[in-house]
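Possible regression after last week's pipeline update?

I re-ran a chain I had predicted before the update to compare outputs. Posting the input and the new output here so someone can diff against the archived version. Not blocking, just want to make sure nothing changed silently.
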Amino acid sequence: MITLRGVSKTFEGKRKVTALDHIDLTIERGEMASIVGPSGSGKSTLLNLIGGLDRASAGEVELDGQTLSSLNDDELTKVRRDKIGFIFQFFNLLPTLSCLQNVSLPLHLRGWPRKKVEARAQELLDLVKLGARVEHLPDELSGGERQRVAIARALSIYPPILLADEPTGNLDTNTGAEILKLIHDLHSRLGATVLIVTHDKAVAESCPRTIHIRDGKVFEDVRR
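New output (post-update):
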């Protein structure tokens, strides 16, 4: 499902910074894995390359048989739209849109009919236990509820790949545990390939596989 071959990423500025250094990695279809490492180790950069949010400086990132470096910007946008769901630490919800509208947005971009969009958005909000909050704005929700809306939005197309960058990092311990349980439940139910970048040891160890990144390299790959 996800294959990285000799992937490197460098950033040019006042000085050249190597964020990732010749990464070789394979994630099988349906796997759930965590990516851990100290701040600045390259783990979020790795997730961004897998998600097509950035391009590798060298090497190849392959998703479901497609080599991302061979795609133009429009083709890469289509891959993100059709195959990848993103969950971020700070929710990234549009503040002037209701829960239903936030979840609906990716489906409108696909050109779905309005009734079909609203039915799917309602279904997903029911799935994350927010079916009664469809008209609420993000500011009217708790942090945990906002993250549930973000998860529902990420799942709007039932993507084969779900990428989560510190999904519990902005939440208290109890709410974070609830969100983690929800991600596990959805993984079991939908069978998506799930990658979670985290600093939280409990989150990392809840996954069957943990990939440790240090100084831009994979230095340990633990399977449970």
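Follow-up from reviewer: compared with the archived run. The two ends are 20 Å apart (CA to CA). Marking as no regression found.
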